Amino acid sequence: MSSSYLLQSPNFSTNLKLPSKPSTPTATPCSLSVKASSSSSSSNNTPASTASKGNNIRDEARRQYLTNPPQNQNFSAIYVPFNADPVTNTESYSLDEIVYRSQSGGLLDVQHDISALKAFPGSYWRALFDSRVGKTTWPYGSGVWSKKEWVLPEISSDDIVSAFEGNSNLFWAERLGKHFLEMNELWVKHCGISHTGSFKDLGMTVLVSQVNRLRKMNKPVFGVGCASTGDTSAALSAYCASAGIPSIVFLPANKISIAQLVQPIANGAFVLSVDTDFDGCMQLIREVTSELPIYLANSLNSLRIEGQKTAAIEILQQFDWEVPDWVIIPGGNLGNIYAFYKGFHMCKELGLVDKIPRLVCAQAANANPLYLYYKSGWKEFKAVKASGTFASAIQIGDPVSIDRAVYALKQSNGIVEEATEEELMDAMAQADSTGMFICPHTGVALTALMKLRKSGVIGPTDRTVVVSTAHGLKFTQSKIDYHSNNIKEMACRFANPPVSVKADFGSVMDVLKKYLSKTPK
């Protein structure tokens, strides 16, 4: 086992008290303590110890490790077959092995040593995670790596590739909730406010960090490859570029936005524009990675789930460790719904909270295999041929993580809903009119919320979080088409096109008076 270390944050002014009698007989890992700040600490929230001339935050992390190395670090994780019986299962793999599926061909899952984590009470983990928020200490300034013990506990911080992703805004959608939904507790988790503009950064920092480790171990990994509907390739190419690792991207030709296409190109990825859809690209990349030393980065790889689950932990942190009633997540390849479940479940299992929220997976009607499966009473799953949708990142008809998603929904008493193209675009426009600038995928999730509010399943006082998976700036063309009333067979009910007017005072005044007379006060 390779020993990792847990950097101490010198600016945290409260000492964390370890349990006097850990629930397992292992020695207390002293590296989990958090030092109090000195009176001379910097006023700009930069850790005082990083101020030494010539040091950067990675150098300082290394110095801290040498000064105060970890003792009896017992946290670990392995690959096991997804949903394997913990009593009878004998199949497992080191995270340093290059393996994507179990012996039976099923999905794998990262299994943490929960007994070691349970040596510390939930109150300890809450305080530790909270102590790292807003710091620049490497690597804990990241919303992902601030939970390092729960993500990749054995990786050296020297191997971590991070853009300090995560810690994204949990936005109180006050006007949208009150005006359109008669809700007081509507929140939007803006995962798209991130390094490459989507939630995919959360998983990619973990995967690329592990690849960085494998390459240093001289494992046969030339580069990293993925099939993508846009956001995965953007995240992969950025993190690989940061680490100097080649990235190879398979994109479906003419099926993603220009903003999404330009990101991997700008970051130096080797981009293949393939004349097929996402499912076709996925099949090709799986065949290629089985023959060439290219590491597979799609959500078939369970490492990404470990990073994405931290968004769920963040939501609990942002609510001061109170559990919302509902969390609504757009679903395409369906890894994210399981990631959120896993994050919430770990918090419950380790005593940070006493319950988990109900989950809703929202799909575009043009790519809705999970919805159809749910409506059939989980009788038989059938892949579909996904049609074109403005929510292009979830235009997937044969999702890799279908088993993960079904498990998460069943365990959380979850629901699946769908949104037509007109519904999702109208919902996006309504949200934008209240001050947001969301992506079409968030429009899918908001449509699900609107339907569940109308049916009374979600109540007016239910605290509800809608997960916004990408930044609206990636999808400006869809917004332009909507507000220009330029979408065939769509009413565009909330379109707000610009008004053409002559360049003279009288004409401008006439237009403004007409506008003011119709505007509610």
UniProtKB/TrEMBL annotation:
What is the protein named?
A: threonine synthase
PROSITE patterns assigned to the protein according to its UniProt record, in alphabetical order = DEHYDRATASE_SER_THR
Which species? Populus tomentosa (Chinese white poplar)
Q: Which cofactor does it need?
A: pyridoxal 5'-phosphate
Which family does the entry's similarity section mention? Belongs to the threonine synthase family.
Q: Which UniProt keywords apply?
A: Allosteric enzyme, Amino-acid biosynthesis, Chloroplast, Lyase, Plastid, Pyridoxal phosphate, S-adenosyl-L-methionine, Threonine biosynthesis, Transit peptide
Instruction: List residues, modification N6-(pyridoxal phosphate)lysine.
Output: 200
Domain of life (superkingdom)? Eukaryota
Catalytic activity, per the record?
Answer: O-phospho-L-homoserine + H2O = L-threonine + phosphate
The record's EC number reads 4.2.3.1
